[in-house]
Amino acid sequence: MTPTVTELLLARAGDRSTGLLFEDRRWSWAEHVTACAAHAAALAAMLRPGGHFGLLADNVPEFSFLLGGAALSGHVLVGLNPTRRGTALARDVALTDCELVFAEEKYLPFLSEASVPVLPLSSLQLAREAVVPVAATPEDLLMLIFTSGTSGDPKAVRCTHGKIACPGEMLASRFGLSAQDTVYVSMPMFHSNAIMAGWSVGLAAGAGIALRRRFSASGFLPDVRKFGATYANYVGKPLSYVLTTPERDDDADNPLKLVYGNEGAETDLAAFGARFGCHVVDAFGSTEGGVNFGRDATTPPGSLGRLLDGVAVLDPETGKPCPPAEFDANGKLLNAAEAVGELVNTGGAGFFAGYYGDPAAEAERMRGGMYHTGDLAYLDADGYCYFAGRLGDWLRVDGENLGTAPIERALVRHPAVREAAVYGVPDPRVGDQVMAALVCRAPVDPDEFAVFVAAQGDLSPKQRPRFVRVIDELPRTATHKVLKRDLAADGTRDAWTPRYPES
After folding, report:
1. Is 428 helix (H, G, I), strand (E, B) or coil?
2. What are the recorded GO MF terms, alphabetically (predicted)?
3. Cα(390)–Cα(175) distance, rounded to whole angstroms?
4. How many other CB atoms are found less than 10 A from the CB of residue 475?
5. Nearest to 303 by CA among 258, 266, 344, 259
6. Which of 15, 104, 366, 468 could form a disulfide with 29 if both were Cys (CB 3.0 to 4.6 A apart)?
């Protein structure tokens, strides 16, 4: 039976074990639920029943109290992204029908164009009165979480009680977490990873939830030790950033047992586990939740894992299943045009509960009653899935469709390259030319780099970057996704053209 967040909270009402940790402060679960009830009463006094409110804040205790308060009062929390401001942030507030917005003092100027009341988070008037929880079902809306917006304006994803509570209960059970554990949450709580792979996991397990205001690579290990964290969640590049911190002989001397997330760099998963003495589990998923699966011990290098029943790789034009990938002796994909397709949940919506206020985007996502991820992939003969990029990243080079992810995986094999982003720039005649932006840990010689790329047996000549640009850092969203449209907008500025040896 699918639980609700309200039920999970009420189950902790008498629990005296540690429930929330922030900096040098501690709350038991019983105290946490009491604080949620006080915030629920405040929301009920300020909003109409079922009304929406925005929250623009870092991972502070009030975020947890207000989310729990919304669950108890029947209101909807809209997580707002502090990397957006002005008209963009006002658009997000209006789209999600917020009646008012709470914000930390430092973020109040970002909301100058909002058309609803904006209140300092510190102005909340709390009373210690008893609250009768509003009855909730797993289908009831609890939170609106915006997508990263890497390919346009962010969309507000409907996150129901069940969509938040179910992953928490599943992961807590899968990993055997209990009140003896502490869940470390440093990913931003306005995003789904922190809520569904962090906060709700701690809630379901009865574990302590240790909040970090904002992620810090240098602060990660000290926090793990300070809070006694045994579990942490991530999305994107945080593992890479932590690995760039200076190594110490005692790095593995810490309580961390398990790290769970998605979109981690393949080379970093084992390296992180070995250095910090923990197990890293990387899965495939998105804010929408339409498709989720992950790696296991049998998964070959580079693969995302085996698809679950009802998930397939379909040709974007015909809608038919793509044939298995074929490789040469060097691992080069020989039939990309036929094997690469879109990951689709053919069985329906999965955990996708729709977009708020955007029926056109929702209909596009659910074409033919199936959930379309917008992600490109291919399957090997054993059914293992490999990521090939986004549909929007699909390059058309000399009449051939190319995914960007396989090229990026090859480029980061170079010992001096820490990160690579591959994207298209217009070909003067027709289609695209391949361009790569590199973040390097050491200087790269263009001629040597060209020889290296040409030696990668799994790259065809058409996949070799026509232009290469070295930059200090890749532009990213607050959840560490690369903004390739920003890179493409710069064109070929500051780029060099590799001179590949004749093959």
Report:
1. coil
2. ATP binding; long-chain fatty acid transmembrane transporter activity; long-chain fatty acid-CoA ligase activity
3. 31
4. 16
5. 266
6. 15
CA dist., res. 496 & res. 102, Å (int)? 48
**Rounded to a whole number, what is the distance in angstroms from the first to the last CA of the chain?**
60
**Token pair of 403, please?**
């995914």
Single out the residue of 401, 471, 461 nearest to residue 436, CA to CA. Answer: 471
Half-sphere exposure of 55 (CA within 13 A, CB side): 30
Q: How far apart are CA 304 and CA 283, in angstroms?
A: 7
**For the whole model, what pTM was predicted?**
0.85
Number of domains, the chain: 3
**225 φ/ψ angles, rounded to the nearest 5 degrees:** -70, -45
The DSSP annotation for 36-90 comes to: HHHHHHHHHHHS-TT-EEEEE--S-HHHHHHHHHHHHHT-EEEEPPTT--HHHHH
Residue range 15-45, pLDDT digits in tens: 999 999 999 999 999 999 999 999 999 999 9
Residue 111, amino acid: L
What is the CATH classification number for the domain harbouring 163? 3.40.50.12780
> Which residues face 121 on adjacent strands?
none
Could you tell me which of 284, 392, 292 has the C-alpha nearest to residue 352?
292
Same domain, 306 and 255: no
Q: How would you classify the pairing of strands 395-397 and 400-402?
A: antiparallel
CATH number, domain with residue 453: 3.30.300.30
Per the rule left: phi > 0, alpha: psi between -120 and 50, beta: everything else, 74 is left
